[in-house]
Design a protein that fits this description.
single chain, alpha/beta, Rossmann fold, six-stranded parallel sheet, 30 helices, 21% strand
Length: 848
């Protein structure tokens, strides 16, 4: 074996791990840490007969690391060195070093918390900070602190900030290996690319072929971009030299992956995902073309699952990729972004813990017996809100009980390699004889969409279930010998991936596959098990708008062929503004199935409430599933229910304006407010609008028997209800202090007008006050009235609160004007001695 940089620090590393529980190792890509460290540990005395488990983030890296180490000691994988990944395991009783992917280690910890046969756990490429690796480290540290102080932990990375990890591991020693990298010439674009990154990468490859020598490593986000870039290059007719194009991504067969990694006689272009960033060594590379994007795991509200999304890489990842060009000598890196964009990159890729769906994590913690995530040591603790949301979903799925403890059903869910939503669906489906169908559905949802058709085709198509269409397309692909069928919308490569996942689920469930034709309602039922919060009801017949059980709104997009179904399960949604989203995949669900299968979850409500649109109280009994009204029946409300609903409607709606304010009620309010202003210490009730509105249930409620609408309300006399706010003594005093009428010298009873913020007013004809010297008063003589003196025609002549002064000084002038205008009325020169009258002239006995 050729000497690698890691060998210079091996003695220091081994000595540190000999006396410490944990060591942090920092070494650049290609230093040899992944393959040389485990082999060096094999003969350490503390390992004895125990195994070394190496956690690798990716399946391809895990398999290659195991195969390379096995070959270096003259063996095949599965003997001393083996590996376990999803869908494949090569180990034996002789295996001492086992390379596993992240979910495998977590499952092993749950089954054997002591890790009885393991002496060292190595976390490779820990800088990627996946949710699974963070959890596995937290669990291993918990085992180490509480159960096995002899368990050794090694954390390895090229770009990790080692300080926080070392602190987490009890001030673990940090060993650094210096790699030998040659200088790399970084070349940026003058402006951002337009169009697909795959096409831009292909053009950059053509440039590199003309300007450089050596093999070229191209970084692209995923298999789709790799295929498009490969097709572009293969169709190029003017290549400067013979060219070997090799794709490299996780789902390729191992033989194809080896072709990409191993040296070739021709000049080679390797089109890779970020798997080639740190985990693999590709011989002969002198040039890197970096597309600048990668697939990153994010919680996808569209499905309620974790999904890979395309996102801009971090500055650390860009540096790692560029370094691949400087392994063998000076190299060149073409970055498909501008120098300005480089300065905007995040320093490191954010940990998945910050933005992933934490429902799987919540289930793992419950399985570990942890109710408080703070009981474990974390580099980044789980966000409490996201964790609480995950636990709520788990309780709804029956995985946790009310105390947050894992149930037997939850333990069975955790044993399946699927999101808890899909695991719940798989288990319940198997019990009801739908294991094979549920396996297909779970695989279709967990993997990428097998359809490659256009939205136009879907828009012209009609189906009760988008997922049933895909199940049938998958089955057709199987019947065709696993080849692309003529005219099929299903992609053969994606069908193969989904089929493999489905077969694994069927094996774990002991479910038998079959060619049975399933009704759409069965598919809808199974999907509703996984997405109970996405059960939706059509807002109105013929509409494409739906209300979901979780309270969100949704609208069918042109990517779904489901149309005009009363009830659906919104399987794939894209979030929109104001709580509404686009439904891209859905499946119909009949009302009968909903009532039969989910009836126990229905909440039965008796509702008596005000309907502001109808302006009346409505009374009904409802069966609800979350925010959905499944069934509604009218009922006869009690008097008390009517009063409560009506008063709440008044408070929320039109307020006091909806009430029948007859003049007597308006006058009573004004009289009370008048006395309350003059005598604030006497305890007069607050009759202001705000106060009366707040107190509506108390003073108006008892008078609302048999009132159900605004029309009924307009007939309620408010005088009696308002009087209930006054004591018997206050009612007596208000008649004394704020009388409704006063008798004037003519004998007429004239109404007194009260207001909340001014003096009381007496509007009276001037002639009716002849002989009256003093201004009339109310409030036991405290408040003089403001006199509005009127002409015989009832028009205002003068406003005064000093009647004596009016007779003495103003009346003579007024008399001259009025005498000519109203000659039939008496206008005496001496108003003091004149007889008050409300008539035009004195009537004789005959006239009377």
């Amino acid at each position: 074996m050729r000497k690698l940089p890691i060998q210079d620090v091996l003695p220091q590393f081994l000595a540190a791990l000999d006396i410490a529980q944990a060591v942090v190792l920092q070494a650049p890509p290609g230093a040899g840490k992944t393959t040389r460290i485990p082999l060096a540990l094999l003969e350490t005395p503390y390992l004895k007969e125990k195994k070394i488990v190496i956690l690798e983030p990716r399946r391809l890296a895990a398999v290659n690391a195991a195969r390379w180490m096995a070959a270096s000691i003259g063996e095949d994988a599965g003997q001393t060195i083996g590996y376990t990944i999803r869908f494949e395991r090569k180990v034996s009783t002789a295996t001492r070093i086992e390379v596993v992917t992240e979910g495998i280690l977590t499952r092993r910890l749950q089954c054997d918390p002591l890790l009885s046969d393991v002496g060292v756990v190595i976390f490779d490429e820990f800088h990627e900070r996946s949710l699974a690796s963070d959890l596995a480290l937290a669990l291993c540290r918990d085992v180490q602190k509480g159960l096995r102080d002899d368990l050794k932990l090694v954390v390895m990375s090229a770009t990790l900030d080692c300080g926080p990890v070392a602190d987490l591991l009890g001030n673990a020693p940090v060993i650094t290996a210096e790699g030998k990298n040659y200088p790399v010439d970084i070349r940026y674009l003058s402006r951002e690319i337009e169009g697909e990154v795959a096409v831009a990468a292909a053009r950059a490859v053509l440039t590199a072929l003309r300007e450089t020598d050596g093999d070229i490593l191209v970084f692209l986000p995923g298999a789709g971009e790799i295929k498009r870039c490969q097709r572009f290059l293969e169709e190029e007719r003017e290549l400067p030299c013979p060219l070997l194009i090799r794709p490299l991504y996780g789902d390729l067969p191992f033989a194809a992956q080896e072709e990409a990694i191993m040296p070739a006689k021709e000049r080679k272009v390797v089109l890779a995902t970020n798997i080639a960033e740190t985990s693999l060594t590709i011989e002969g590379v002198h040039v890197v073309v970096d597309g600048g994007f990668s697939r990153q795991l994010r919680f996808d509200p569209a499905t309620g699952l974790n999904r890979l999304v395309t996102a801009r890489i971090s500055a650390a990842s860009a540096a790692q990729r560029a370094g691949r060009a400087g392994r063998l000598g000076p190299g060149i890196c073409y970055r498909l972004w501008t120098d300005h964009a480089q300065r905007t990159l995040l320093p490191f890729t954010p940990p998945e813990m910050r933005n992933a769906d934490l429902t799987p994590l919540a289930l793992e913690l419950a399985g570990w017996g942890i109710k408080d995530a703070g009981a474990l040591d974390w580099l980044d603790p789980p966000p409490s809100a996201a964790l609480a949301e995950g636990r709520t979903l788990l309780q709804r799925l029956g995985a946790l009980d009310r105390q947050g403890l894992i149930t037997p059903h939850g333990a069975a869910m955790a044993a399946l390699p699927a999101h808890p939503r899909l695991a719940h669906m798989l288990l319940v489906a198997q019990q009801q004889g739908y294991g094979a169908l549920a396996s297909d559905l779970a695989a279709l949802l967990a993997e990428r969409d097998i359809y490659r058709g256009s939205d136009d085709f879907i828009a012209q198509h009609s189906t009760p279930s988008d997922l049933l269409d895909r199940v049938e397309a998958l089955e057709e692909w199987r019947r065709s010998g696993k080849r692309d069928g003529k005219g099929s919308m299903a992609d053969s490569y994606l069908c193969r991936i989904v089929d493999r996942a489905s077969r694994q689920f069927q094996s774990l469930l002991a479910a038998k596959g079959c060619n049975e034709v399933y009704p759409a309602d069965d598919v809808g039922f199974l999907l509703a098990l996984a997405f109970p919060d996405r059960i939706a009801r059509q807002r109105e017949p013929g509409s494409d708008r739906y209300l979901l059980a979780n309270g969100r709104g949704g609208r069918l997009s042109n990517r779904t062929a489901v149309r005009n179904q009363p009830f659906i399960v919104a399987v794939v949604m894209e979030g929109g503004e104001r709580g509404h989203g686009l439904i891209h995949q859905a499946s119909a669900l009949s009302l009968e199935t909903l009532q039969r299968e989910f009836g126990e979850e229905f909440e039965h409500q008796r509702l008596v409430e005000w309907d502001s649109r109808q302006g009346r109280v409505i009374a009904r009994e409802e069966d609800r599933l979350g925010e959905l009204v499944i069934a509604s029946r009218q009922l006869v409300p009690s008097s008390e229910e009517l009063r409560i609903a009506l008063t709440e409607g008044i408070l929320r709606g039109p307020g006091l304006a909806a009430l029948n304010w007859i003049p007597q009620a308006i006058q009573l309010r004004a009289r009370v407010e008048f006395l309350g202003r003059l005598f604030p210490r006497e305890g007069w009730p607050d009759f202001s609008g705000d106060a009366l509105l707040v107190a509506v249930p108390a003073w108006l409620g008892p008078f609302l028997d048999n009132v159900r609408s605004l029309t009924d309300l307009s007939a309620v006399d408010l005088l009696a209800p308002l009087k209930t706010l006054l004591t018997r003594d206050q009612l007596r005093r208000i008649d004394e202090g704020a009388p409704t009428h006063l008798t004037v010298p003519s004998g007429s009873r004239i109404a007194v007008q009260y207001s909340a913020d001014g003096p009381p007013i007496l509007a009276v004809k001037l002639q009716e006050l002849f002989g009256l010297a003093e201004t009339p008063t109310v409030a036991w003589g405290i408040a003089p009235l403001l006199l509005h003196l009127l002409s015989p025609a009832g028009r205002p002549i003068q406003v005064t609160s000093d009647l004596r002064n009016f007779w003495n000084k103003v009346y003579p002038e007024v008399k001259k004007e009025l005498k000519g205008r109203y000659p039939k009325h008496p206008w005496p020169d001496d108003p003091w001695s004149a007889v008050p009258t409300r008539h035009a002239k004195r009537r004789t006995r005959k006239e009377g």
